[in-house]
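User: We ran a pulldown and think these components assemble together. Before we commit to crystallization trials, I'd like a predicted model of the whole complex to look at. Sequences follow.
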Amino acid sequence: MVKSSPSPVQATVAIAHVTFGEAIRDRILSNIFLFALLLLGVGLLASKLSFIRPERVMVDFGLSAIQVTCAMVAIFSGAGLLGREFERRTIHIALSRPISRLQFVFGKFLGLILVLGLNWILLSLVFLLLLWLSTGASVKILIAAGVLNSTLFLGLFLVFFQNILIASVAILFSTFSTTAVSVVLSIGCYLIGINVSQLRFISAKVQPGLASVFLRSATHVFPNLEYFNLGLRVTYGLPVGWQLPLLAISYSIIFTVMILLLSGFLIQWREV
Amino acid sequence: MLEVNRVDQCFRTGFWMRKTQVLHDVTLSIPKKSVFGFLGANGAGKTTLIHLIVGLKRQTRGWVKIAGYEAHTPQAKARVGYLPERPYFYEHLTGQEFLFYVGALSGMDHSQVQAKIPQIFSRVGLSNANRLELRRYSKGMLQRIGLAQAILHDPEFLVLDEPMSGLDPVGRKEIRDLLVQLASEGKTIFFSSHIIPDVEAICDQVAMIEKGRLIGCGPIGQFLAMGKVQTEIAFKGVSLSEVEKFTDFESIRQIPDGIRAMVSSQEAVSRALALLLRARAQILWVTPVRPSLESFFEKEVSHG
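Assistant: Here's a predicted model for the assembly, 576 residues in total across the polymer chains.
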């Protein structure tokens, strides 16, 4: 008789593997991917209509498209990740085995990260291909002209860490709500996260009172996704020091770990 | 193997989170190597108790222990093989991939699962379906793969929630035979069922639950001994009006071959046979009818 419990790594990897397999078959994921390709295609078209520096249009359009669609994948896949397990009762088999609910959450999260990583790599490759097509120049020329620069790659890299954070938030919501509610809450959280500086600005402008306190609190409680947006520095290829990416990556990792631990705690109370 | 002691289970339901008690002071114990049948109507609390046993839920009061360990601990879970009531599995996985998944969750490495797959699939009658996606499985096949994952890690205690549901008569017989075989290998089996004859056929202990309360628990023989043993006598060559004069017959029914009558005591059987022979009746058969678990269950439920 096998009486041993699985090692944390073994169980997590097994759950991640199944989650990845399930998520990549999800129709919503392929629809978002097609939507992303469409947006990138529109970016290419827009760049062709521009007379001055068409590559900047492509970079701006392409990076925004990747940011938005990757966030959509993180939200739509993450929000249903645990809720679906409870609704379909597929979690029963896993939780009747000698694994903890926290391990299950980590496994699901790891599987989701693999999906996000694959989606991010594919979209980034398509983006770079379209960027190359929009200019019609060779890679060497693009590098020499500063179109392909370290800031651009850093911008793409930070999109991935932003996704990790968004996915963990979506998982957190899915520990205590249905898929639909988790999607709504995650989108709300995303919209607040990418507009933190505007919220700070508004909170400073409004009359001191409940609204001001609420807005200021929101900027502290919700994850600040502006750390992952290099904005015009990517468009103009301006150099970025090492401090900013280090801060963004650390922020993503710390916030994600905290949210996952909280998810692991909350899921203990959910009825199967 | 299993001890359930004074267990209550409550849920909070509805907008106002009203407390609903679904199990009331449930106590039972299952000795090692026994086959334990758990009977109850829909909504009686069978699945709730099973969820407590396999550690999916925590009881509000009391305790549930498996081999001395609290049911929600890894030590207890490692000893249990669980088949859910309606097996919900990841549809994109093949039968084989699914077993690799549950094997990993039970601490088995890839080679251990690989070595067991042919034997497990053949045991549950799915030899040709190991590479088929679970979405293509029929209900009966899902039940079988559910049983396969429950026995994969060779647990000493099997908890099966309605293992025979969704199976055709041949399938039911095969699963029944498999359970008997597993019991003979020394496994302790706890299974719930609506199908009372299945429980009667293979269990040596039973418990009955109604509205969250145990209404009976113990060796199956104890329940069967509580009922009245009757004898059925079938005969021909005597008219119905003549037979109706015999006071020992509790019920009389005409059949194409003759008449079937029920008598309740051994003395009444002797008297009835003597009277029939005197009336020159031809006896077709004399069969003792033992009380069934079903009749006991029906009686308890109607009294409850």
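DSSP finds 13 helices and no strands in chain A. That may be worth checking against your pulldown data before setting up trials.

User: Thanks, that helps.
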